Amino acid sequence: MNLAVNFAGVELKNPVMNASGTFGSGQEYAELTDLNRLGAVVTKGVAATPWEGNPTPRVTEVYGGMLNAIGLQNPGVDVFIERDLAFLAGYDTRVIVNVCGHTVEEYCEVVEKLNGTSADMYEINVSCPNVKAGALAFGQDAKVLEQTTKAIKAVAAKPVIMKLSPNVTSIREMALAAEAGGADAISLINTLIGMKIDIERRRFVLANKTGGFSGPAVKPVAVRMVYEASHAVKIPVIGMGGIATAEDAVEFLLAGAKAVAVGTMNFVEPRTMEKVVEGIEAYMERQGMKDISEIRMD
């Protein structure tokens, strides 16, 4: 039974990985899950300089998932290369580095520093606020997204995945913009924007007021968006958003994704990704499939 996939020219042993921001860069989970069992490890967002993130409280549970307003806290690319990439080099799995920035120049600076490292691919978080455009996220304007993709591709020595925001009018338009900019792949969805209010204290639960909504409740939205995006572009898609079981993962593959990422459920059950890999194998055996590519809609 073959679970291997060629994703934008990079061979993955299987299509299962973590969603950025839910897994650190692997260190926090190394004793709880077998990193070698995964198709790839996707790191936490990395910026050109250290980011402190948002004030606390910045995480809360909600019905069907969670809200987070971490604010992409990270130590900066130099510490990341020395500490996190060095750690991941000890495992037999692909490494996708999630890159964040406030300007196109910051994205490019990080990518250029990563070019000579062991990173296999870059996933660009375009949900970051563009400080040169009134804090509107890079991924909420198709022209800005296309231009940003072009600029990053011009300096990238590894395949570039653009991670799309669901907080847009047309996910199809954004997918096409990323492709037009030269993206090697896209991933979606990033978190939806949500809010929670404590009615007794009459205050916002998160210090940031709003946060990214993720978890099982977002899955129907994510599946629909993955279907729309994957049928609009010719480049491969990583599908994510509410995956809790192998059945959820297969649903994304049937919708058109070539790989899948597990996020919020890593906090609930650290072995979720391993279980998803095992469950996909069981599904293929049940369906009489020998190759992962056979999981597709008739």
Structural description of this entry:
With 298 residues, this protein is α/β, with parallel strands linked by helices. The chain has one domain: Aldolase class I (TIM Barrel, Alpha-Beta Barrel). It has helices at residues 77-88, 104-114, 142-155, 171-180, 219-230, 246-255, 265-268, 272-287, and strands at residues 5-7, 10-12, 16-18, 40-42, 59-62, 65-68, 94-99, 121-125, 160-163, 185-188, 192-195, 197-198, 203-204, 210-214, 237-240, 259-262. The strands form four sheets. Strands 3-16-15-10-9-8-7-4 form an eight-stranded parallel beta sheet. Strands 5-6-14-11 form a four-stranded antiparallel beta sheet, with no helix packed on it. A two-stranded antiparallel ribbon has the order 1-2. A hairpin with a 2-residue loop joins strand 1 and strand 2. Helix 2 (104-114) runs parallel beside helix 3. The radius of gyration is 18 Å and the shape is globular. The two termini are 21 Å apart. The mean pLDDT is 95.
